[in-house]
Task: structure prediction
Amino acid sequence: MAATVTQASVSELTEAQRHSEATKVALASLVGSTIEWYDFFLYGTASALVFRDLFFPQFSALVGTLLAFSTMAVGYIARPLGAIIMGHFGDKLGRKAMLVTSLVIMGAASTIIGLLPTFETIGVTAPIILIIARLLQGFAVGGEVGGAITMAVEYAPARRRGLFGGFPQLGVATGLVFANLIFLASNAALSTEQFKAFGWRIPFLVSFILVLVGIYVRLRIGESPIFNLMKKAGEEIRVPLVTLFARGWKEIIIVALSTLFTNVMGFIGLIYMLSYATTSLGFTRSTILAFTIIANVIEIPATLYFASLSDRVGRRAVYLWALAFAMVWGAVFFPLVNTAIGVLVFAAILLARLCIAAIFGPQAALFSELFDTNIRYSGISIGYSISSIIGAQTPAIAALLVARTGGTLALSGYIFVAALISFVTALFLWETSKVDLQGRLSTS
Result:
């Protein structure tokens, strides 16, 4: 149950100072989440392009592909552990410390991958270390997502929570753009043999520098004023996870199932398409990477537009309309892709990303407004991580479905069902844009 607290002491900041600090925190959240997702997507891109040959050469092409995609999915299996542990301390000790910690872990994992010898050099030890590094990446992202969203929304002015909450959501698109750009540059500058020998390592090693930048930026922001209010009121909870599952389990289910489509469509459009378009449709790597980069660049302002729109017309309306369109686009995505006509393939990828932008836009504020302050970090993180576990199986499932059925009709059905589940779940949402975020404290 939510307990109302005195709002006079919520912050010593004036409204102008609050807006300035909110902008700084939103940009810091964007920088940090971009770096985290850059590192995370590097793995997905590499798993589609080179990991099968470098770490699983002893298997057939299909089995090697499935194993490469499955090691990518391992990262998502680790996300709930990161969500639980970092969410717990984020709700007890503060959002800022956990966000810095998540960046350090992610940077260490990506550096390990960038320096890792291949199967040819150290045998089975190579894929084992690769999996451990991927587990660390998943742990870090499990703590990053909920924290970045929570921090941005808790700092935001009450009437602009949608817009400010949209900034950490941009990390997915911007991180992927940077990851693919650097892969594209490496692929263009090097021969196929050079890229496979060492070129794929460059993006992972660059992340070390980016992580240092991200840590510096995050250390310069203050703790959430709403979290500080909770601490002053003495309303922190000894074990947030217990209270979360006692009082917020319905909200966790809503977060997990309403984000199912974005996970499934994201993995198909961003990861599986790299493999499918180059091996089955005859496109070059550079062409598909370029399509993906352009679509994600367009997604960035679109996400902020829909985030701002949710401040004017409400979160629920934007969310439901986006998911309704998702069902339609999910059904026609592969029929368009299978034409193998460049402009239609690009249109399929672009519209899928715009659909995701309309969902991502209001999502951060919506989910933050569902949970009380002392279980918010944990609730958002765990809900996202559950959805990601299901979605992470998508590339491997897609490869298997195409191999077994000889076509992509089943994949269209798979996307449609994911969108339908998310839409039906979202029907149970209530409008949250008028929620008093400062007054939400769950009594233990």
User: Anything to note?
Assistant: DSSP finds 20 helices and no strands in the chain.
